[in-house]
Amino acid sequence: MIADLCRAAGVPETALHRETRSTSTRQNLRNARPILQRLGAGTVVLVTDPYHAPRARLIARQEGIAACTDCPAWHAIGPRQWLRHLPREAVALSATLLRLR
Predict the structure, then answer these.
(1) How many angstroms separate the CA atoms of 28 and 69, rounded?
(2) Is 68 strand, coil or helix?
(3) Which residue from 72, 84, 67 is spatially nearest to 26, judged by alpha carbons?
(4) What is the C-alpha separation between 33 and 61, in angstroms, rounded?
(5) Beta bridge partners of 70
(6) Which of 6, 51, 94, 95 falls between 20 and 30 A from 12, CA-CA?
(7) Residues in Cβ contact with 28 at an 8 Å cutoff, skipping those fewer than 6 apart
(8) How far apart are CA 22 and CA 30, in angstroms?
(9) What span, in angstroms and rounded, lies between the C-alpha atoms of 85 and 52?
(10) How many CA atoms are closer than 13 Å to the CA of 99, on its beta-carbon side?
């Protein structure tokens, strides 16, 4: 779980705010919005895989959340994972872009 990785990297527990009900990126951002508002958050950092980052940023923008992304190093993701996820993300990003209109 990302929270465990954050703790291991030295992020204090008080800085971790988890939203655990969601099953999609859009749902996660919608459900996180009240938490972000309560915290008075400005721009948030979405930690995700490099192939998912463009779509995550776009969905955040569509949901009215100012966000940037941070990802593991590109080379840390193996070729099989890239080949498995890139086609899906390409289709999902296209569908997300269509929601802009």
Answers:
(1) 15
(2) strand
(3) 67
(4) 12
(5) 47
(6) 51
(7) 19, 22
(8) 9
(9) 8
(10) 13
Q: Where are the alpha helices (DSSP H) in 1-101?
A: 2-8, 25-39, 53-62, 79-98
Helix/strand/coil for 9: coil
Domains of the chain: which residue ranges?
A: 2-98
Q: In percent, how much of the chain has pLDDT > 90?
A: 44
Q: DSSP assignment, residue 44? A: E
User: What are the backbone angles phi and psi of residue 36, rounded to the nearest 5°?
Assistant: -60, -40
- Residue indicated by tokens 């995700």: 48
